[in-house]
Amino acid sequence: MKTRQRRVVVIGGGFGGLSAAALLAHRGHNVELFERASQLGGKAGIARTQGADFDTGPSLLTLPSAAESLFERCGQRLSEHITLRRLSPAFHYTWPDGTAVNIDHDLGLTLTNVQHSLGQAAASEFEAFLHYARQIWDASAPAFVLGDAPSLSGMLRLNVKTLASLRHIDASSTMEAAICKRVRNPYLRDVLRRYATYNGSDVRRAPATLNCIAWVEMGLGGYGVEGGIGALVQAIIKLCEQGGVQLHTNAHVDGIVAKQGQTVGVEVNGRFVAADAVICNADVEHLKSSLLPLASRPAPHPQAPSMSGWNMIVRVPAGQAQSRFPHTVLFPSEYIKEFEAIFDRGEIAQSPTIYVCNQQMSHARRGWPDAEALFVMVNAPSVDRSSNQIDFTALSDSVMSQLTEQGVVSAASQIVWTRDPSGLAARFPGSQGALYGAASNSIFSAFRRPANRSKVLRGLYLAGGSAHPGGGVPLCILSGLAASRALMVDTGLSEPEQSVLG
Ligand SMILES: Cc1cc2nc3c(=O)[nH]c(=O)nc-3n(C[C@H](O)[C@H](O)[C@H](O)COP(=O)(O)OP(=O)(O)OC[C@H]3O[C@@H](n4cnc5c(N)ncnc54)[C@H](O)[C@@H]3O)c2cc1C
Description:
The longest helix is centred in the first third of the chain and has 27 residues, at 120-146. It is globular, with a radius of gyration of 22 Å. It has a seven-stranded mixed β-sheet with strand order 8-7-16-17-18-15-19. Strands 10-2-1-14-20 form a five-stranded parallel β-sheet, with helices on one face. The chain has a three-stranded antiparallel β-sheet with strand order 5-9-6. It has 17 helices and 20 strands. It is 35% helix and 20% strand. Strand 3 and strand 4 form a beta hairpin. By secondary structure, it is α/β, with parallel strands linked by helices. The chain has a domain at 7-83 and 228-303 and 439-490: FAD/NAD(P)-binding domain, CATH 3.50.50. Helix 2 (64-73) packs parallel to helix 17, helix 3 packs antiparallel against helix 4 (120-146) and helix 4 crosses helix 9 (212-218). The protein binds flavin-adenine dinucleotide. Flavin-adenine dinucleotide binds next to helix 1, strand 15 and helix 17.
């Protein structure tokens, strides 16, 4: 029989909160999770429209080893809960001049595709770039992703061997400068620039270290999940339930209660719930401005949020789309201008990049029997950065006509669901509609991101995209693991040290 060790409250049921809750419950803690919305999953949401369910958040899973690590720590195997899908081809990139290139799950096939579509010189520089991106990942992951939050003082204490490996992380250059230095092919530059959007950053400012994302997807693999990313959420919910987590939805936490600098519980819907420790999965800005006791709130100094997005789900009658790929990306002729529009002017680009996920092809999601569901995204400024009223009706008309021209949708297709950045901002308090927490637009971003153990209150821990190690599904799962590890270390029940992705 398990010993119930600590009463832990988790605020929020996104990937970070659910992962922390599952692990702590499996370690014998008494865990209660409160989620303000009617469904769990946070940004990995589901919309029920015209009688079927669809994912409205993440559409690509990278680093499944993060989820595998969570399940293993709970004594289970991820593969017994979900089936990952290797996609071949995975991404279909197109440009207005008719150029197109496919990216595969298999790196060898990708290089063959690049050679076929863009020539041998492009394939060679692509291969060299991926080698460079891999070196960055190998050198940076242990210090910036897999371990505890990095600090500048901690960096100074690193041993010589670790410091030597950090020379590979290319932190003094920007993503854009490093891409342009290594790759001359203009189409490949666009493919590589787009990885800045995987954590919502500005390719012109983000440190070149983030070029490792290209390796994470193309080298380590980008997966679909049978049944949709929602199936991964459901699997972690099941893990929580098996561990005995009490899950509450429609339960808005109004505030954290503390006595003499120690967290003692939370107020939920006007009721006090006692806790020895609290894990906050809500956005850090919401924590700072609304959840912390008044006396513990820091002076407002918000970090600039990452990009937001405008989304829609399109119903395409079966057999009518001519262009069918799991993921399709329609680039404009000058992609770099999109970063200027979003980050310099607070606008959606005049000709934005259009991303489309075919949910049946990516995730074998059972949707409508007579139609396909396409999830569409256009990157947009976060709400606080938006300079003027954006005309989303005009945007959807323009996106639909481009998708029709390219054969991705047919004339009879129908928009059945949309969401703009203000919808995201309202749903996720403190987020400003950002998809990935704060933007990583400086070499110091990783050091400014809050650690998983609060510096303000004892017994308070942070998990989720706005805490270490950052946004995106695998990193949020890792943040849940890191927050739980910090809690267990503090309670003298430390988690055995092992590489999180080992
Ligand atoms: C459109 C879109 C596309 C994306 N695409 C990808 C992708 O392809 N691949 C990828 O890896 N990532 C992607 N992401 C990012 C990824 O979805 C997120 O980084 C991740 O899901 C965030 O998890 P989280 O742990 O930060 O929690 P969140 O999802 O932010 O959830 C936090 C939860 O806390 C709850 N909460 C907040 N305040 C309170 C309160 N006071 N009381 C109770 N509950 C509260 C919220 O309701 C929410 O459910 C995408 C995101 C979006 C929106």
